[in-house]
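In this supplementary section we document a worked example of the pipeline. Step one takes a protein sequence of length 292 as its only input; no multiple sequence alignment statistics are reported here. Step two produces a three-dimensional model, which step three serialises into structure tokens for compact storage. The input and output of this example are shown verbatim.
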Amino acid sequence: MSAGVPTAVSRAAFALTGVPARTARRLSARTRTVVYRAGLTDGRSVVIKLYAATARRNAFTESAAIRAVAGHVPVPALIGHGHVPGHEATALVTADLGPLTLGRVMRSGRISDERALKDLAGLLGRLHRAPVRSWVPHRPLHEQVTSLGRRCPPSSLDRIAPALAAIADAVHTVPVWCHGDLHGDNVVIAHPRAIRHLVDFTDAAAGPRESDVAQTLVMTDALSTLRARTITDAYPVALDDHLLGAWAVFHTLRSWAHSSPGGDRALWARRLDDLSRRTPHLFRTRRPERTR
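The serialised model returned by step three reads:
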């Protein structure tokens, strides 16, 4: 093993590419996934994502999602996936497209916020055209609500009961491939043609298109009427505005439930309160008790 290269990364690189890793730098870490940029001894740079054995999705499901949508939206080339020898983890190896993300160029001022939102909408539209096969994983609403209920008090779910009812009633929606976490930092811009590539299909599954668009609205802080319209106008298919609003409420509460106590949680609480003022019909209003 090269000095400074974690054992799991070294074993994943050699097992899945046939070439040892010379360097490794951690790019991100979540509860059940860790991502590294690794330099191989043959000169290639790759991205290695390690999934914990307890992860709901793993390298096999993510590689299947990437292959399924590759004909409709730019994605990184798959190099290999499988179990890491000597570990319970699985690993996904993809080509390294470089460090430049849509979020980075937007924050630097090189492209406008409006342009970035339109790019995201266009990528979502292309992704949602990919065919959904019978094997594509689904995540039913009751499962999502149960998961959310483990992280927040019953009163929080009761507060958004009208939004949950609107989502549950929309049984006619045709499922599409949903990315599940599309924002500027999950879009890599590859030179020289500056092609936008979708990355990180950890949460990819079949679901309503309004859910995926709403998730992007929430994660890009585009819930105001003007910013939301920038995305929905650039999205190639008409959306159900009521359902879109309901999913925005759900995803905002979920972001609040997963936020860290302190400033981050206060931020999401303010956004949820703002949504309750903007779309009161999607919230349960507390009525004052009447006294004799």
